């Protein structure tokens, strides 16, 4: 029975009261927000919910009248916790709510409790594995530990309307058993508390917990997924060639690795360019003798230069020249000679183990004040170094990443430190104090185009026979020198090298619309040899940055990429230990003589 206008007006009044209470008390951080939201939820948990019709008239509450005060602005997560940390997997940052020892103990405890069909469970697995449920959207919070409830929320894209707004999923989990106390989803089936989107969010929580994440990553790498080499969905669907589509069914117990399509040239022996052209003309003559065929005229007119394709040389303008092109059409690629033509080797991607367990920290130079010892003690790491990298992969969006960088000298400043001789107090402040530069146009351009540049880098490397795999990387701090840190744009596994390397991508705003020949004449980080081969200027600050990234991650090589709208330049730089040791001495001297005293005075 539909509620009356009088009832609806009361509902709206309660909604406004709930939102106002959460906005003033919870979101602003006042303690009263905690004391109001938690009892309201506790009382509502044992009270009947408003009717479905009433809930439809009050969508801001999400759970009806009873949950109004408890949920408010948080949409399924109490406003008190949502105001404290929207990027972490818990209140504040870190795991918090997921840190309960009995929470998410068994996958079956969560997945099989709700009355769900086998179809929903299969679909939820696909949603979780193929990133329809975004890892970066996961937030957890424990509003009141006395209630024994951990709240979680996530977003899940629709399976049919792939470009539509994703559904919001809200969960309430018992901390002692991991059981689902309550769950909702915006989809029609979510009103009953059990749908494939809710199950997908649960599966993702379990996977993040199993992999040791305390902060949600931007996405899961192939080594962290149940099935390797999947192409997780991103925000925005991009086209791809049919032969690159992964046809595996995303189901539990399915194939761990794909059966890739490999193009096969059935010709007995490789034809020379002139022989190939004569064969095309012969086919055109045969077609013309059979009747009037427009395609025969095209074949007879074929000539001129040939282009290299995945199927071998083909006449320029022919279908293979653009459908099976090795490089993106109309895109110029500059590749350094340090990257040779690969054999398109396909191998499983191994997990990367950072830092060697046997390494020990050398003695610290000099004596230190009490405040300096406090700073040094705060940045000391052991096993936590691997956890820090794992839980800071959202980089600038990660609170843990920002805090961990605060008292460290990071790779982006290595070049400036190595080159500069004298330091003033103002110079130290400009170098050390954190600054938000995301509103600066060149920086914003680089952030927005980083993923595009990575995609083009992968496409170009694949065309050169290097089936590289790129994964996100957080803040890397080697326990041997915990005052130094680095955050590469990615970690690359190249089967041709059988090892990992670092990836550093630059998208210069000043060259965003430049033509290739114009860019080669401009002065920037890349210099070009007589044969047009790109090389990172060894006197540029970026070289010290890449060298430091290789040293701290333990990688033996790094790919430096400069990408624009119409061209890309790639150089593979090999690690030079002697050069790093020389720079490392200068970095250590700067930290202990200038940076550490400055941090202690703050």
TrEMBL record:
It comes from Rhipicephalus sanguineus. Gene3D superfamilies: 3.90.320.10. The keyword ATP-binding does not apply. GO terms for biological process: DNA repair. InterPro entries: NF-kappa-B_Signaling_Reg, PDDEXK-like_dom_sf, Restrct_endonuc-II-like, YqaJ_viral_recombinase, Znf_SWIM. PROSITE patterns: ZF_SWIM (PS50966). Residues 1-25 form the signal peptide. Residues 167-206 form the SWIM-type domain. One of its GO terms (molecular function) is zinc ion binding. Keywords: Metal-binding, Signal, Zinc, Zinc-finger. This is SWIM-type domain-containing protein. Coiled coil: none annotated. It holds the Pfam family YqaJ.
């Amino acid at each position: 029975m539909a509620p009356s206008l009088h009832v609806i007006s009361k509902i709206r009044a309660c909604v406004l009261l709930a939102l106002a209470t959460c906005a003033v008390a919870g979101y602003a951080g006042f303690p009263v927000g905690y004391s109001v939201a938690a009892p309201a939820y506790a009382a509502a948990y044992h009270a009947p919910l408003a009717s479905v019709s009433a809930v439809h008239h009050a969508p801001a509450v999400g759970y009806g009248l009873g949950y109004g005060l408890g949920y408010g602005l948080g949409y399924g997560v109490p406003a008190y916790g949502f105001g404290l940390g929207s990027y972490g997997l818990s209140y504040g940052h870190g795991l918090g709510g997921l840190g309960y020892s009995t929470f998410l103990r068994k996958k079956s405890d969560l997945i099989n409790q709700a009355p769900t069909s086998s179809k929903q469970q299969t679909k939820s697995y696909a949603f979780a594995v193929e990133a329809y449920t975004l890892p970066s959207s996961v937030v957890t919070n424990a509003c009141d530990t006395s209630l024994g409830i951990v709240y979680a929320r996530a977003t899940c894209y629709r399976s049919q309307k792939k470009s539509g707004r994703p559904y919001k999923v809200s969960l309430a989990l018992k901390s002692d058993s991991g059981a689902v106390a309550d769950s909702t989803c915006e989809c029609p089936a979510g009103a009953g508390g059990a749908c494939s989107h809710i199950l997908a969010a649960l599966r993702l929580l379990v996977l993040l917990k199993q992999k040791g994440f305390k902060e949600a990553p931007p996405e899961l790498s192939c080594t962290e997924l149940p099935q390797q080499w999947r192409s997780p969905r991103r925000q925005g669907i991009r086209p791809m060639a049919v032969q690159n589509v992964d046809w595996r069914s995303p189901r539990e117990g399915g194939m761990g690795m794909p059966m890739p399509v490999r193009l096969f040239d059935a010709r007995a022996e490789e034809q020379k360019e002139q022989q190939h052209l004569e064969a095309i003309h012969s086919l055109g003559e045969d077609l013309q003798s059979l009747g009037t065929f427009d395609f025969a005229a095209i074949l007879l007119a074929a000539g001129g230069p040939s282009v290299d394709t995945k199927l071998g040389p083909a006449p320029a303008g022919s279908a293979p020249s653009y459908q099976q092109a090795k490089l993106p059409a109309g895109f110029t690629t500059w590749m350094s000679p340090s990257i040779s033509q690969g054999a398109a080797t396909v191998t499983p991607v191994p997990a990367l183990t950072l830092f060697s367990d046997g390494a020990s920290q050398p003695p610290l130079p000099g004596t230190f004040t009490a405040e300096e010892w406090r700073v040094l003690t705060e940045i000391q790491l052991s096993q936590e170094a691997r956890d820090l990298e794992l839980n800071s992969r959202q980089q600038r969006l990660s609170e843990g990443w920002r805090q961990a960088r605060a008292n460290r000298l990071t790779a982006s400043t290595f070049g400036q430190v190595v080159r500069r001789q004298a330091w003033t107090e103002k110079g130290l402040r400009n170098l050390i104090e954190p600054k938000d530069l995301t509103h600066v146009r060149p920086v914003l351009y680089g952030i927005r185009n980083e993923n595009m540049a990575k995609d083009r880098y992968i496409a170009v490397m694949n065309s050169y026979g290097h089936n590289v795999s790129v994964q996100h990387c957080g803040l890397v701090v080697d326990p041997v020198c915990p005052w130094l840190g680095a955050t590469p744009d990615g970690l690359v596994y190249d089967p041709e090298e059988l090892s990992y390397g670092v990836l550093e991508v630059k998208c210069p705003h000043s060259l965003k619309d430049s033509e290739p020949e114009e860019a080669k004449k401009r002065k920037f980080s890349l210099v070009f040899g007589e044969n047009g081969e790109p090389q990172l200027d060894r006197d540029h600050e970026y070289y010290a940055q890449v060298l430091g990234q290789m040293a701290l991650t333990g990688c033996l090589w790094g790919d430096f990429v400069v990408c624009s709208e119409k061209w890309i330049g790639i150089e593979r730089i090999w690690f030079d230990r002697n050069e790093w040791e020389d720079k490392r001495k200068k970095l250590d001297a700067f930290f202990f003589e200038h940076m550490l005293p400055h941090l202690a005075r703050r």
